[in-house]
Task: inverse folding
């Protein structure tokens, strides 16, 4: 397949457009730090890694991205709008009664959202099940990505999923941990080691460096799930 | 006779052959029984280990891909421990699945309170869109399980060791069954409570309804039975927390002057071990205890 000659179907957006899209939600140039922590990683994923478009949101063979850390979803909504999953005219309604865009996403309301989230620790077990469901149907090509936060990792449900996915060899599973050092008791010894000791491939990168993120996201990990720990500036 | 749990394992194992989108998710409980099925369908019989949050979350994740998951463990670890996963991963995500519990209110009394779940149906009743089956016999469990597998909705199937001697024809859509007709009042027996209710009401002029699907609640059937009697006095006997369906019965009778008595497992923790029969007696759910309270409630 080649895309060198085809005209782009929709207007291609650039990373710097995201600031404007987020401002449509926040109504100002001030952005909540939580929105920013995920911005670069989300952009690289949707721009370069995930094989899903507005036309394939119901395709069984699509890649899935599950936003588990549903807090501060402005960056997520901005990236989805930038990629045409829904129109940016929805953004100013953020959080309003009749808006599909809540302060935590709802998969039944947001085009392109694979899960509803908000309560922490649900996305990774759902992602494990998604991989199991794909495998059960012989769909071994689609990749499943789930984004969690370093504080979200406090939730024990994540550790049930991590401990199972490694030995089960869920190669289609990918966990992106955005680490802004917000876990109350920290993770002495590092976050990647938790995954590695459970049999995952694990890499740690600068969460603001797009090339490094891309390299991490495309790290080969035969027979194992992959964890990418992306460091960003501490929350406070 | 096999137990409901035995029948669940044999039926689900057969259905895995027939239904390519069916999967069974386990957390060690019943894993031995499903081992032959797991060998035949290694990608559709999943044992996540002793991890109940993952059990429910992974089942729901499979449902997101179009799989019909059966998620199974003891009631206390299926409904109570991972309740938020039941609420959010199935309900809020808007996907279907079948939760099948074993253990009931006190199937293993010697195991103590940690393995008792008399509150499971009441908890499920706080959620929208769940069908709740309480079979009273292994044959009924098989019928209701097969129906559930064919559907797309959210279903809770409550299995227990307590069972009636004979199976009745049941269906999740047929409403409550009229077992006996009388004039003084109506007694609804839920699932495995039927034999004791029939013994308790022997010689009493009451209608006995048999319920194996309690959600949705057969309001029309209850109203019909209560309206035909001299008094709209209704007793509902449930094998789990007393009064779980009393509000549903009251709503069904809203247009009639009525009285409702909800019998079932008491709220107080007994801190007793022993046998199932001893617990039935302690909660007044043996024939004698039931008769005493039913006759005390009915008007002469």
Result:
């Amino acid at each position: 397949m080649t895309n060198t000659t085809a005209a782009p179907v929709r207007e291609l957006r650039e990373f710097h457009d995201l600031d404007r899209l987020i401002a449509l939600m926040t109504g100002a140039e001030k952005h909540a730090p939580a929105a920013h922590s995920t911005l670069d990683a989300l952009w690289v994923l949707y721009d370069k890694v995930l094989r899903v478009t507005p036309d394939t949101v119901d395709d069984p063979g699509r890649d899935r991205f599950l936003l588990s850390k549903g807090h501060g979803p402005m960056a997520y909504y901005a990236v989805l709008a930038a990629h045409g999953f829904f129109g940016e005219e929805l953004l100013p309604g953020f959080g309003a009664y009749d808006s599909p865009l809540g302060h935590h996403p709802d998969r039944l309301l947001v085009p392109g959202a694979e899960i509803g989230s908000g309560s922490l620790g649900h996305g990774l077990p759902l992602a494990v099940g998604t991989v199991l469901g794909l495998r059960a149907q012989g769909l071994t090509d689609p990749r499943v990505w789930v984004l969690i936060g370093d504080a979200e990792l406090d939730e024990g449900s994540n550790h049930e999923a991590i401990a199972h996915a490694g030995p089960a060899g869920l190669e289609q599973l990918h966990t992106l941990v955005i680490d802004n050092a917000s876990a109350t008791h920290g993770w002495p010894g590092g976050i990647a080691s938790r995954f590695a000791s459970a049999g995952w491939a694990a890499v740690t990168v600068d969460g603001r460096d797009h090339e490094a993120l891309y390299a991490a996201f495309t790290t080969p990990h035969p027979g194992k799930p992959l964890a990418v720990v992306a460091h960003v500036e501490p929350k406070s | 006779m096999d137990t409901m749990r035995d029948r669940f394992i044999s039926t689900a194992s057969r259905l895995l052959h027939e239904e390519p989108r069916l999967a069974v998710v386990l957390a060690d409980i019943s894993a031995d029984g499903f081992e032959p099925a797991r060998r035949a369908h290694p990608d559709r019989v999943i044992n996540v280990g002793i991890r109940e949050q993952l059990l429910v979350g992974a089942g729901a994740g499979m449902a997101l891909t179009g799989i019909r998951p059966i998620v199974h463990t003891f009631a206390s670890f299926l409904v109570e421990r991972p309740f938020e996963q039941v609420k959010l991963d199935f309900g809020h995500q808007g996907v279907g699945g079948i939760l099948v519990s074993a253990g009931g209110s006190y199937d293993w009394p010697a195991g103590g309170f940690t393995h008792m779940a008399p509150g499971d149906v009441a908890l499920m009743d706080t959620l929208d869109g769940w069908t709740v089956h309480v079979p009273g016999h292994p044959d009924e469990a098989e019928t209701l399980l097969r129906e559930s597998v064919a559907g797309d909705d959210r279903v809770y199937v409550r299995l227990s060791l307590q069972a009636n001697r004979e199976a009745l024809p049941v269906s999740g859509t047929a409403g409550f069954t009229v077992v006996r007709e009388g004039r003084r009042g109506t007694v609804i027996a839920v699932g495995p409570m039927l034999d004791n209710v029939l013994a308790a009401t022997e010689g009493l002029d009451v209608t006995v309804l048999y319920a194996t699907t309690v959600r949705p609640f057969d309001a029309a059937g209850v109203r019909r039975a209560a309206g035909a009697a001299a008094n709209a006095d209704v007793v509902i006997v449930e094998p789990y927390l007393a009064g779980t369906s009393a509000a549903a019965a009251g709503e069904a009778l809203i247009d009639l002057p009525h009285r409702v008595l909800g019998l079932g497992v008491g709220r107080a923790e007994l801190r007793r071990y022993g046998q199932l029969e001893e617990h039935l007696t302690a909660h007044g759910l043996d024939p004698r205890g039931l008769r005493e309270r039913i006759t005390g409630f009915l008007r002469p």
